[in-house]
Amino acid sequence: MLEQGHVELIDGYYAPDGSVPEMDTPQAWKERVLFHHKVAPGFKITVLDVVAEGDKAAIYWQADLT
User: Fold this and answer.
1) What is the 3-state secondary structure (H, E, C) of the chain?
2) Rounded CA gap, 35 and 42, in Å?
3) In terms of Cα–Cα distance, which of 51, 47, 12 is closest to 30?
4) Please, is 3 exposed, middle or buried when counting C-beta atoms within 10 Å of its C-beta (0-12, 13-18, 19+)?
5) Do the Cβ atoms of 23 and 29 come closer than 8 Å?
6) Contact between 16 and 28 (Cβ < 8 Å)
7) Which of 26, 33, 53, 57 is least surrounded by CB atoms within 10 angstroms?
8) Which residues face 51 on adjacent strands?
9) pTM for this structure?
10) Cα–Cα distance, 52 to 30 (Å, whole number)
């Protein structure tokens, strides 16, 4: 759904201790997604794998900016 610009979904997936420092707030993630929609309308994120253990999870993903 992010591919369709539904950035409100980010609030439900955001982890404040994530490992991407330049996107350390939900608003920063939303702005980045909307920027990519503007410059690359075919912007798409594909989740390749999810690993979870206890209260931690990691997502391996790729972005396609076609």
Assistant:
1) CHHHCCHHHHHHHCCCCCCCHHHCCHHHHHHHHHHHHHHCCCCEEEEEEEEEECCEEEEEEEEECC
2) 12
3) 12
4) middle
5) yes
6) no
7) 53
8) 58
9) 0.56
10) 24
Q: What is the pLDDT along the chain (66 residues), one digit of tens a residue?
A: 666 777 888 877 776 666 666 667 888 888 888 887 888 888 777 889 999 999 888 888 888 876
- Go through the chain and tell me how many residues it has: 66
User: Are 7 and 26 a contacting pair, CB within 8 Å?
Assistant: no
Hey, what are 44's tokens? 């798409």
Token pair belonging to 2: 């992010």
Listed residue (33, 30, 28, 31) closest to 44, CA to CA: 33
